[in-house]
Amino acid sequence: MTDPGSEAASGSAPAVRRWAPPQPFGPHDLRRNLRVLQRGPYDPAYRAVGGAVWRATRTPLGPATLCVAPDAGAGEVVAEAWGPGAEWVLDRLPALLGADDDPSAFVPRHRLVAEAHRRHPGLRLVRTGLVLESLIPSILEQKVTTDEAYRAWRLLLRRYGEPAPGPPGRLPERMHVMPGPRTWALIPSWEWHRAGVDDKRSSTILRAVARARRMEEAARMDPAAAVTRLTAIPGIGPWTAAETLQRTNGAADAVTVGDLHLPGIVVYALTGARDGDDARMLELLAPYAGQRHRATRLILATGRTPPRRAPRFPRGDIARL
C-alpha cells in the first residue's frame, strides 16, 4: 500500500483533511479571512481560484502547498496539501482558519462598528504560526507604496523561491514557496536593488533571517513577549511587529501604529474628521482594548474612507537611481 504522506510529499497525491467548525464557531468567511495573507494580486505564494484558496508556504518540515475550499453542503472545509510540509499545514488547519480566535470577546462601541460586526459575522483572525513568511513582506512594505512592496515580494519569490509542490495541471501557474533563511542571506546586493529594495530594508531582512529560529519562536509567545522578540532586531519597529503578529499569532489587539493611511481611515469612519493621527486613533480605539485589531478590521470592512485630497504618493524606483 502506498503511504499517502509520501505521495503528498512527491506531489502525486494530496494529503486530505476535512474540518467541521464547532457549532459555537458560527459562520466563516474563508476567502475574506485568508486574504490578509495575500501580498498583492500577483502574489506567487497565494491564489484564489473559484471558491478555493491556494497557499504555498515553508513549514519547519519543508515546503507545502495548501488548497482550502468550503463544502457548503456538508458544512465543512476541505483541505488538500502537497509537499514535505503537507501534514504540518493540515495539523494546523483549524488555527489557520481562526479556530483559536474568540470573537465573542468583542463588544461594539460605535454604531458603524456594530453594523460592520452584524454584516460580517464570519470574520475570524487567522493564525499561521509562521513568522518569517509574514515578517519579510512586512519589512518590504516599510516606507514604500504597497505596489512597490508587492513587486519586490513577487520578483524575489520567483527568482529565489522554489516551485510550489503540487499536481501539474491543477496547481495554479507560477506559484512559489518563499526562500529559506539561508537563501535569503545569499541574495546579492544588486538583486535587492533590482527588486527595488533599499539597503535599509534588505539589511533588516538579513538580520531577521540570521536569527530565524528566534524569530519563529515569537509565534508561540504571548503578544507582549512576541513584540519584544521581534523589535529586538534593528529595523523592526511596532508597525512591522503588529503587521506580522496579526497574521502569525491572530493577535486581536495588535493595532497597527505608524501607518500612513489607517489612522485617517479610523478617525474619519468614527468621527467624520479628516485630520486623524495615531494619537486620535488610539483614543477612539481605547474602548476596544484587547480587541483593537479586530475593531480596525471591521472598520476597514465598511469601506468608509476619507476623500482623497492629494495625489497618490508617487512610486519610486531605486533601480533607476
UniProtKB/TrEMBL annotation:
GO terms for cellular component: cytoplasm; protein-DNA complex. GO terms for biological process: base-excision repair, AP site formation; DNA alkylation repair. The keyword DNA repair applies. GO terms for molecular function: alkylated DNA binding; DNA-3-methyladenine glycosylase activity; DNA-7-methylguanine glycosylase activity. Residues 1-27 are annotated as: Disordered. Keywords: DNA damage, DNA repair. Residues 1-15 have a biased composition (Low complexity). It comes from the Bacteria. PANTHER family: DNA GLYCOSYLASE, DNA-3-METHYLADENINE GLYCOSYLASE. This is 3-methyladenine DNA glycosylase/8-oxoguanine DNA glycosylase.
